[in-house]
Amino acid sequence: MENKVMDALLSRRSCRSYTGEMPTSEELKAILNAGLYAPSGKNNQTSVTVCVTDKAVRDKLSCLNAEVLGRDGDPFYGAPAVIAVLGDSTCPLYVQDGSLVMQNLMLASYSLGLATCWINRAYEVFRSLEGKKIKQGWKIPEQYEGIAFCIVGHPSGAMDEAKPRRSGRIIFV
């Protein structure tokens, strides 16, 4: 069965090595627009995305993320663009809603020939004192919590093939 959506769902992979070349503003706008169309509980549409292309801000977020990990290095793997997804914690499904935004961002990027990776620790980053200051500078209300970071860029090499799927994970009743 040939289907572009199914192909994207089955062939998209996470990337952990980037060329450093910035996606175009048109590509980033298209990706961010796709995030706006993610399903949300009761169609509340409360998730917020912040596209970071400023290297100093990107590097600051990377350092804060690495601090949470207790490591040195770049947890963003050299990706030039970082999309922070935040959700309104007063909404009961904010984590699920933000997660669906992340999926749309990753699939849209893949459809444009770009690579992504879901990076955790946005919750901890935006709860830190420095993270709260960054969020305030972006004029994002305090009740918004970090869901994840979607790193975006051009892959530095060929993407890995899918690993075999573990059996026993589908049950029909």
What does this entry look like structurally?
With 173 residues, this protein is of the alpha+beta class. The protein is 39% helix and 16% strand. It has six helices and four strands, in the order H-H-E-H-E-H-E-H-H-E. The chain has helices at 4-11, 25-36, 55-69, 94-111, 122-127, 129-137; strands at residues 48-52, 81-88, 115-119, 144-153. Strands 1-2-4-3 form a four-stranded antiparallel sheet. Helix 2 (25-36) runs antiparallel to helix 4. The longest helix is centred in the middle third of the chain and has 18 residues, at 94-111. The radius of gyration is 16 Å and the shape is globular. It starts with a helix and ends in a 20-residue tail after the last strand. The model has no long low-confidence stretch (mean pLDDT 96). Keywords: Oxidoreductase. Residues 10-63, 77-154 form the Nitroreductase domain. InterPro entries: Nitroreductase, Nitroreductase-like. It comes from Treponema parvum. Belongs to the nitroreductase family.
Give the helices and strands, then pairings.
Blueprint: H1 4-11, H2 25-36, E1 48-52, H3 55-69, E2 81-88, H4 94-111, E3 115-119, H5 122-127, H6 129-137, E4 144-153
Antiparallel strand pairs: 1-2, 2-4, 3-4
Binned, the helix content reads 25-40%
Distance between the termini: 25 Å
Strand arrangement within the widest β-sheet reads 1-2-4-3
| Total strands | 4
Radius of gyration: 16 Å
Main beta-sheet strand count, sense and barrel state = 4 strands, antiparallel
Overall pLDDT score: 96
The secondary-structure element order is: HHEHEHEHHE
**Individual helix count:** 6
Domain Nitroreductase: 10-63, 77-154
Family: Belongs to the nitroreductase family.
Keywords: Oxidoreductase
Pfam families: Nitroreductase
